[in-house]
Each structure stands twice: as C-alpha cells, then as structure tokens.
Amino acid sequence: MFEKLTSFPENFLWGGATAANQLEGAYLEGGKGLTTVDLIPVGPNRFPIAMGNLDSFQPKEDEFYPSHEAIDFYHRYKEDIALFAEMGFKCFRLSIAWARIFPNGDDVEPNEAGLQFYDDVFDELLKYNIEPVVTICHFDVPVHLVKIYGGWKNRKMIEFFETYAKTLFNRYKDKVKYWMTFNEINMLLHLPYIGAGIVLQEGEDKQQILYQAAHHELVASALAVKACHEIIPSAKIGCMLAAGTVYPYTSNPDDVWKAMEQDRESFFFIDVQSKGAYPGYTKRFFREHGIHIEMQPEDADILMQNTVDYIGFSYYASRCTSTDPEILKDQTEGNVFGSVKNPYLDASEWGWTIDPKGLRITCNQLHDRYGKPLFIVENGLGATDVLLDNDTVEDDYRIDYLDRHFAEMAEAIQDGVEILGYTSWGPIDLVSAGTGEMKKRYGYIYVDRNNDGTGTLRRVKKKSFHWYKEVIANQGAQYFK
C-alpha cells in the first residue's frame, strides 16, 4: 500500500507542446482567415497591440509578422512528427487555428481544407502511437470576430465558439482523446488582444470589460465541456492555467496576504472551471470595484454542471511579491507577470526566475485545491542556442533545467499528486509568443530561422534531443532512486 515508486506511471504521457500560430505558418493557405496573432508584429508595436492598446486589423507592409511563415510546420509536419516519434513521444500537444476551420469565425459552414489538414496531422501522429492533445483556442481569434463583434467583449462569441468546438468534436472524435478549451485563460487580464481579441478604447472601464469577457469565455468553456462529454464520452477535457506560485517576500502577514491575492487573480478562472461557481473572494472583488457581470439565468447551471476533467497548466517560474515600496522597485524582467526579484533564485537569459522546487509546490497547491488530475502542458527554458560546425547544439543548460524540474515533478508524484503527463514547451524551436523572436529557443530540435525571417528552416537535433529520448525510454526511473 505504501511501497516506493520506481518510475513515472506506465501510462504517463511524455511529449512536447506547441501552438498553431507559433509553428504552422501558411497563414492564409488552405482557406485560412486572419487571426489576431497574424497581426502582431515584431518591434515597438508588438506589446501595445498584444495588450489591446492599438488597433490592428490588417497586416502593414512596413511590419514583420513572424507567425506568417513561422517554422512552416504546415508543410513539414511529417518530418517534425517523425523526429518526435524518434524521441519516443507518447503525446503531442498542439492547437487548432480557429480561422483554419471557420475563416471568419461566424461562417455557416466549416472550411473543409482546414479540417482535412488536422485530419492529416492526427493520422500522422497516430501512425507513431502519439496521442494528440488538442487546445481548441490558443491565443488566436478570427480577426473578423474582433472587427464585427469586438472579440470576447460580446456574448455572441459563446455561440461561435460552441459551434467551432462541436465541429471539432464531431470531426475528430475517433482520433483525439485529450482536449483543452482555452490556453492560459488567465492571460486575458494581461494581454487582452492575444487572450480575447479585445481592443480597449480610451475611457473604457478596463476591468469591467475584461471580467465580462472572462465570463463569456468561462461559459463558452463549460459549453465545450458539455459538448465533448456528449459527443466523445470517453474523452477527457481540461482547462489551462498560466501557473506559478506567488511567494511572499517576507513572513510579514501583509506580504503573505498580497501573495494570496495575486494567486487568486489567476485561480479565479480555474475555480469556476473546476468547481463550477464564482468564488466568494471574486464576488467581493467585483463588489468593491464596481464590476457588474451581465449573466443569463442559465449561466450558473451551465458552469456548475460542466466542470473540467483535469487541470492543465504551464509552469515556467514562480513569482514573488511584497508590500514594501522599496522592495517593489527591484522587479524581474521578461515575463508578462510582474515579480519582485527572489534573492534565493537565479534567472534565465530573458529574466525568468528558475525555480524547479516551485514546480513541486505548484503541483501540490493545485492538487490540494482541486482534487483533480493535473497535466503539465508547458515548461521549458528559452535560451540563445548556437549551432556548431559539427551540426549540433550543446545545450547542457537546457538539460540541467529540465533535469531539475523532472526531479521535482517526480517528488510531486510521490507526494500523491496525480499527473497525467508532461509536455515541454516548444520541443522544436518556434516563434516566441512574448517577443516574436526565434533566437529565444526552447526546442530539442534546432530550426535554422532567424529573427528577421531568414534561414533555410532546416531541422537539427540538439544534445537535449538524445537526453530527452533516454528519459522517456527509461520512464524517468532515474528520478525515483
């Protein structure tokens, strides 16, 4: 009953994770429409657009949009999936580009060419016994829905999303067993245009708009869960959180309370998706900030009756906060989430805190809070890799990062946390969601592409490729000694 584990569970899903807009390219091929990410350039306008502070409805000739070609997975998926299979992947997390299926988002009929593309990708994965793990919406909204309806500000988006989700479930019910509704749903509050297709106008009540949009996404997510359970009863469908525990800088109770409040800002979304109702602390926040959420009479029942099967989450870094104005001046850089520098931790090249123990803490925190299986669907190290003359990349720093995180993941499993699987972010180099760069690389596979879009797109195995292959082959047994 209390015997020691000797490896990760036999059915543990090892793999990698990607997003359509960061690797597919072919942004207008096969009948695909424009999505929000297709209009986010590299350069000074990137963050103002991503944050919803600038309109962007058409590509501009003087801007470079990295998603337009990305790493051309659209034409090279067979080559890439063969490499994933060589590493021994048990699963591959990918997203479906909404505008490949419904180019405008409100189309009466889906685009057959888009549906067939993903059929082909899933068939290729299943040929190698790799389970597809599919995110229905990963930071892309058809631009037509933004222009005509205002994105997720508008309740009509629920209907469009439900139609989209049902189309996917009916088409791929025999090929996909694992689904997630919205990628990092809590990012809606931080990058509104990326997260919800929202452009904020001067004078608008930002909090009111964002939390109303959040309600629309939460109802849409619940309806997708309902549809999935009805159409594919054997499938599992989860939510997805940008996670990372917030530490208090000191044991001052005010610091501890502030850290809890910052955690709750994100947990709110998963509380609703997992527990089926708005938590009391959110109701108080709305009351004290004059936020009034317009709900339909049926919304409460929809949320309560259609909770998720598992909690998917990304973990890159923990965060830290303080109530001391002087300490707050020393902030980390590079991550969308603000954080006080933690004196006990190092940071990556891009300023992201490196905290393997934080993964174990986050796993335990989420499992204790929700009592549902977890799925670590993003984790990894962005770094500047150098392709050597012998056609390899000596990325020992990535191996070290992952090795330490795997050790803590194993500890969490021994703590009693149920974890379905682990998909490291960007198993193949792809476009950075944050900066739009290619030089911020996460992959086990190097892609010859530069920040300006030049390069041959040739694929090269890094040292970490062979290391991860061995971890999977051994079922991570080295972490249970």
From TrEMBL:
The keyword Transcription does not apply. The active site is at E378 (nucleophile). Coiled coil: none annotated. GO terms for cellular component: cytosol. It comes from the Bacteria. It holds the Pfam family Glyco_hydro_1. This is Amygdalase.
